[in-house]
């Protein structure tokens, strides 16, 4: 029986390492050491009598035998994990580590206080949080939950639940507008300084609607390219140009007059804010609890 248990453990470790493409990432996901992963894979290879991985200093790849073995084992491992998740869902108190990725500025300002309140009420729940503004592959990165703006370009293998909607506001400081004027049309916007997001070496476009009510994306002048939402707002407050940000991140500045909204017809259509997770037959209790809580908080107006 012990030998069977070890064999199943070895297969689970193999599947996790194959999906991660890294012993280090697999070790982190499994909660064991990198050395333990390597030893388990070596034992499995000895038992099977073949090599499963190509190992180099830069990458880890499957051999032909490894690819065939992965194709046979991966679904079986998923079935076992899902069966365990279904049984563990009987637990009333969410526990364990939840890996969640959030948009940087919105995540820090709006979502983080909500998550902290959830954790205070569920002390057995532990968070691993990252902050990125582009859609990552949650399966590849080992993420349980994502929160993202807008529709998913590739939703295969993912489930999305809408939390709320929010306008993307184009605004600048009164001092900038007094000095350079207010653009009354999108065409005139291109004559101004703009502070745009910057991800993976590329400036990000702005989203809005055209005269026919169709959602469009424009590429404003990238006078300043900034990879952090809070810094974008700070630069707009300093009079460096126009920015487009979620309304929740600039609403206080708009109310106080420190920022002024322009081209409001372009920003009239709200953008969805979704919580996203990998599609499985049985949702883990900790994931289900946090998703349900986020939905409730959104209905109360706590998500911006």
TrEMBL record:
<dbReference type="InterPro" id="IPR036388">
    <property type="entry name" value="WH-like_DNA-bd_sf"/>
</dbReference>
<dbReference type="InterPro" id="IPR000847">
    <property type="entry name" value="LysR_HTH_N"/>
</dbReference>
<keyword id="KW-0804">Transcription</keyword>
<dbReference type="InterPro" id="IPR005119">
    <property type="entry name" value="LysR_subst-bd"/>
</dbReference>
<dbReference type="GO" id="GO:0003677">
    <property type="term" value="F:DNA binding"/>
</dbReference>
<feature type="domain" description="HTH lysR-type">
    <location>
        <begin position="13"/>
        <end position="63"/>
    </location>
</feature>
<dbReference type="InterPro" id="IPR058163">
    <property type="entry name" value="LysR-type_TF_proteobact-type"/>
</dbReference>
<comment type="similarity">
    <text>Belongs to the LysR transcriptional regulatory family.</text>
</comment>
<protein>
    <submittedName>
        <fullName>HTH-type transcriptional regulator DmlR</fullName>
    </submittedName>
</protein>
<dbReference type="InterPro" id="IPR036390">
    <property type="entry name" value="WH_DNA-bd_sf"/>
</dbReference>
<keyword id="KW-0238">DNA-binding</keyword>
<keyword id="KW-0805">Transcription regulation</keyword>
<dbReference type="GO" id="GO:0003700">
    <property type="term" value="F:DNA-binding transcription factor activity"/>
</dbReference>
<dbReference type="Pfam" id="PF03466">
    <property type="entry name" value="LysR_substrate"/>
</dbReference>
<dbReference type="Pfam" id="PF00126">
    <property type="entry name" value="HTH_1"/>
</dbReference>
